[in-house]
Amino acid sequence: MGSTGETGSGRPGDTRDRDGEGRARNARPRDGLGRPLPYGADGVARQPEGVVRTPEETVEEAQRLLDEGKPFHAHEVFEDAWKSGPGQERELWRGLAQLAVGLTHAARGNLTGGARLLRRGAGAAEAWASEAGQALPHGIDVAGVAAWARELAGEVERDGRAVDAGARAPRLRAGAAGSRPDHGES
Questions:
Q1: What is the 3-state secondary structure (H, E, C) of 122-159?
Q2: Measured distance CA(23)–CA(46) in Å, rounded
Q3: What are the CA-CA distances from residue 143 to residues 33, 104, 124, 126, 146 (Å)?
Q4: 167, 125 in Cβ contact below 8 A?
Q5: What global pTM score does this model have?
Q6: Deepest in the core among 39, 97, 155, 185, taking most CB within 10 A?
Q7: pLDDT tens for residues 18-57?
Q8: Minimal CA–CA distance to 156: which of 104, 95, 93?
Q9: 44 and 31 in contact (C-beta within 8 Å)?
Q10: Under 8 Å between Cβ of 102 and 117
């Protein structure tokens, strides 16, 4: 370490990012798709972890982030619901988190991984809804979101190019204001 107080990574050498329990955390700034930026760069504000929200608050916050083109951040919101929600709903939230990560990868240009996660998340959410006997849990249009995911997975495989995450954001709720029935891009 030189006299600047930095390590070879560019991270300040005398500060270690730790949570309240002493576990290492990554303070590196990230862009809107969750990609790491150089230390000291301006990044997008990260979602706080471990936030307990009502299902309605989860859906509203995730939709806002998806609409802003921040599916990586929406995945963190779904992950909080998955980890803190009732056990019988964990597979729903996990499936939605996978859909958000799939959109993240498709927007980053990892088309194979994106398509795989979009399909996996669609299947998980549909399986949960079928088993639970709930077509619209918390107002979430599971069938519509799953159809969106499969359509997008096919598109990225066929077209071979990254997508605009905000323009291709799903509508989580059936009949939601601002609904975009045609997700196609010109």
A1: HHHHHHHHHHHCCCCHHHECHHHHHHHHHHHHHHHHHH
A2: 18
A3: 25, 21, 11, 7, 5
A4: no
A5: 0.80
A6: 97
A7: 566 665 556 788 888 988 889 888 888 887 888 899 999 9
A8: 104
A9: yes
A10: yes
